[in-house]
Design goal:
CATH architecture of the largest domain: Alpha-Beta Complex
Helix content: 25-40%
Structural class: alpha+beta
Distance between the termini: 8 Å
Number of strands: 14
Order of helices and strands: HEEEHEEEEHHHHEEEEHHHHHHHEEE
CATH class of the largest domain: Alpha Beta
Number of domains: 2
Number of helices: 13
Shape: globular
CATH superfamily of the largest domain: Aminoglycoside phosphotransferase (APH), C-terminal lobe
CATH topology of the largest domain: Aminoglycoside 3'-phosphotransferase, Chain: A, domain 2
Radius of gyration: 22 Å
Largest sheet: 7 strands, antiparallel
Strand content: 5-15%
């Protein structure tokens, strides 16, 4: 086999492993009875852990090496959830047992699990959101997960809605004036929802473009249950609408409603009236978490296309909701207009006032809602125009989805995150490039 002698272990996912990767690979092949190693590569998978594609004489497998900083309980918890999910019919690669019969193996201070290699491409690799048929399969898998009665020990999820306010405080100084207004509107709407009283279920919590593979036969495979927790089902659906379906037709509000409708048609228990009433708050919150999470990764030094994409996905999603509110204020009479007025009556008058000012600026042609530095010619079908009222200047919003180039060098990597170009595709925990061993 080839070695990693030319690569510094400080780069990418390999830098999260404090041991020799070639020696780890040989150890795994021996302990799992895989035979001689033909080759291996590191999968560049987001911001945590290190995944290896190991090709041996007896089998091709993926080795998930948990980073040294992970709590010791996380690997066993992850393996247990995967086992429960597979028993419930969820399509996840089968876990392999080591020579001692266990799913979790320890080597040189690291815990790891080994699973069968799943053929196919992720939506990140294909550079597009799911089709309608594929969305149905995603929601079928989500419904199966939500029906699992497991109650695992909670694990910290930095992307959960529960962390929205703390994260906004943490990275608030990186927000520009528009982003601060958009996030503020999200927090105001969320404050009016008793989301902790909504029905909870076991959710995957990270059904994003890099964690869903489409096999050659069209079947869907779900990856990575490390963040699975019991949360409201709406959090799962909001991540699907805001992140996975980014780039699909329609605004985020429309995608959220569509995902909710299709889920209720599939799930054994349709969404309740309380859940349906909170769709807007959760859709907005999911977009805000993409934006804030991307800025948090930027601050921590993860500056590249994936981080740029999170910021763009979040900002454009929040703009979608603001535009919907502006239309409701202008047109009046429909349910959304009443909802906006109700928020004002409950004390969120500041948000409604901002919407009125924004609508007035739009009428006067002074308001621009495009991502900084975006070339409209690059956006193609991602561009949508909304006329606020007849005879009023259009307000433009640009949606840049995962169909855009994912290999573009991040020219903004060392620049202000407020000026990230809206051109990079991908989502957190995606599976873009590979470093070949």
């Amino acid at each position: 086999m080839t070695s990693d002698g030319t690569l510094s272990t400080a780069s990418g996912p390999a830098g999260r492993v404090a041991t020799s990767l070639p020696e780890l690979v040989e150890h795994v092949a021996a302990r799992y009875g895989l035979g001689d190693v033909a080759g291996w590569s590191v999968l560049e998978t987001g911001y945590e852990d290190c995944n290896l594609d190991l090709r041996a004489r007896q089998a091709r497998v993926v080795v998930k090496v948990f980073s040294a900083g992970r709590p010791a309980s996380v690997p066993a918890r992850t393996a247990a959830i995967i086992s429960r999910a597979r028993a419930a019919g969820v399509r996840h690669p089968a876990l392999r047992r080591d020579a001692d019969g266990g799913h979790v193996h320890e080597y040189d201070g690291h815990h790891l699990i080994v699973m069968d290699f799943a053929p196919g491409q992720s939506f990140y690799e294909m550079g597009r959101p799911p089709s309608e048929a594929e969305l149905g399969k995603v929601l079928e898998q989500a419904a199966l997960i939500h029906a699992i009665g497991a109650r695992p020990e909670p694990v910290f999820d930095p992307w959960a809605i529960d962390n929205l306010l703390p994260l906004a405080r943490q990275v608030g100084d990186l927000l520009d004036a528009e982003q601060r207004r958009l996030v503020g509107a999200c927090l105001e709407e969320l404050a009016g929802v008793r989301w902790r009283e909504l029905p909870e279920a076991l959710i995957h919590a990270d059904l994003t473009a890099g964690n869903l593979l489409v096999a050659p036969d069209g079947e869907l495979t779900v990856l990575d249950f490390a963040l699975a927790n019991r949360w409201p089902r709406l959090q799962e659906l909001a991540v699907i609408a805001a992140s996975l379906m980014h780039g699909a037709p329609g605004s985020l509000r429309e995608r959220m409603e569509h995902v909710a409708t299709r889920y209720s048609q599939i799930a054994p228990t349709p969404l309740s009236p309380g859940e349906l009433g909170a769709l807007g708050a959760f859709g907005r919150a999911a977009a805000a978490m993409e934006l804030l999470g991307g800025l948090n990764q930027w601050r921590r030094g993860s500056r590249g296309p994936e981080t740029d994409s999170l910021i763009v996905i979040g900002t454009t999603g929040l703009r979608d909701y603001e535009l919907a509110d502006m239309r409701a204020v202008e047109l009046g009479g429909d349910q959304r207009a009443r909802a906006v007025r109700d928020r004002g009556a409950r004390g969120h008058r500041g948000h409604r006032a901002r919407l009125a000012v924004a609508a007035q600026q739009a009428r006067q042609g002074r308001r621009q809602l495009t991502a900084p530095g975006v070339d409209r010619a690059l956006l193609g079908a991602g561009h949508r125009s909304f006329g606020l009222v007849e005879g009023v200047s259009n307000v433009h919003v640009f949606t840049v989805g995962t169909r855009c180039s994912r290999g573009v060098p991040a020219a903004s990597a060392s620049e202000n995150p407020r000026e990230v170009p809206a051109r990079a595709g991908g989502n957190r925990l995606a599976r873009p490039r590979q470093w070949k061993a």
